[in-house]
Specification:
alpha/beta; elongated; 290 residues; five-stranded parallel beta sheet; 9 helices; Pectate Lyase C-like
Length: 290
């Protein structure tokens, strides 16, 4: 005799079941505890205000299921796929979501934060999937938070890959080319974070630009760059010249003369154009997501 979804989920047994297919039933407000259904298919099942405790649904597929205000406590959902599911007001408490995927699901960062994986390689994949899900649904703030989690995990991943500080990374990336690739990715991610917050923080571009202007002003002064009409020993003038070269490249009556001054001013002008591009892009991203 075929069991319904309600009968199967509420039955007082601990039998492990696999490849079960359940469709179009109402399990709202139920308390489901200690159930193990692996590689199963849940289609259009209502779980509104239901409570799941110590269940295992690994590698299962949930399609158009309704989890509004449901509580999932210590539920193992590794490798699960959720498609078109409603999680409005749902709570994930100490759940396992390793390698799970969410597609067009109403799930937020605050709901899932406590159940994010601790391992950086797993967290990177899950955060990337949730970032795309949030972006597709127009959840700009959740998109930004998942992006930061993804980038933080990627930095840790590539740092360990470069340094080989963990046995897992030593075995997976034994060659020096792998280490160098990890080092390059790690440095690139750190630079992106500092310069413009992965394209999400326009104010970091401004701060980075000020640092660049000050750095080049010190170079002009330290190298005694020859600049026509520059007052003798006028240290502050180097700052104004550096700022002008960075912002516009128009030097007014101050003109670089020797090779050092020409090379520095040309390089700074190029950096100014790059930073302006970063600023416009970051500002557009912030405005367009409101």
């Amino acid at each position: 005799m075929t069991q319904t979804a309600v009968e199967l989920l509420l039955a007082e047994d601990t039998v492990v079941k696999e490849r079960v297919s359940l469709k179009g039933e109402d399990c709202d407000g139920r308390k489901i505890k200690g159930k193990t259904l692996l590689r199963s298919h849940f289609n259009e099942i209502g779980f509104k205000e239901s409570e799941f405790e110590e269940c295992i649904f690994s590698h299962s597929y949930f399609e158009r299921c309704y989890f509004r205000k449901a509580i999932l406590n210590e539920v193992i959902l590794n490798g699960c796929i959720f498609r078109d599911c409603n999680f409005d007001g749902a709570q994930f408490i100490n759940c396992q979501l390793d390698y799970s995927e969410f597609h067009n699901c109403s799930v937020t960062f605050s709901q899932i934060q406590a159940s994010l994986p601790s391992r950086e390689n797993v967290l990177r994949e899950l955060a990337r999937n949730l970032r795309v899900n949030a972006q597709d649904r127009g959840q700009s703030e959740d998109y930004r938070k998942f992006l930061l989690e993804e980038m933080k995990a990627s930095k840790t991943y590539n740092r360990k890959k470069a340094l080989g500080s963990d046995e897992y990374y030593k075995k997976k990336y034994p060659s020096w080319t792998d280490r160098l690739t990890g080092l390059k990715e790690w440095i690139g991610l750190e630079a992106e974070d500092i310069i413009w917050g992965y394209g999400e923080v326009p104010t970091r571009v401004i701060c980075s630009s000020i640092v660049i202007v000050l750095f080049f002003a010190l170079l002009y002064w330290a190298l005694r760059a020859e600049i026509r009409n520059m007052p003798t020993s006028a240290t502050i003038e180097y700052f104004f010249f550096s700022a002008t070269a960075f912002v516009s490249g128009a030097y007014s009556d101050l003109t670089p003369v020797n090779l050092a001054a020409l090379l520095l001013s040309t390089t700074e002008r190029g950096l100014g154009l790059i930073m302006f591009g970063f600023f416009v892009t970051a500002l557009y991203r912030r405005i367009s997501k409101r």
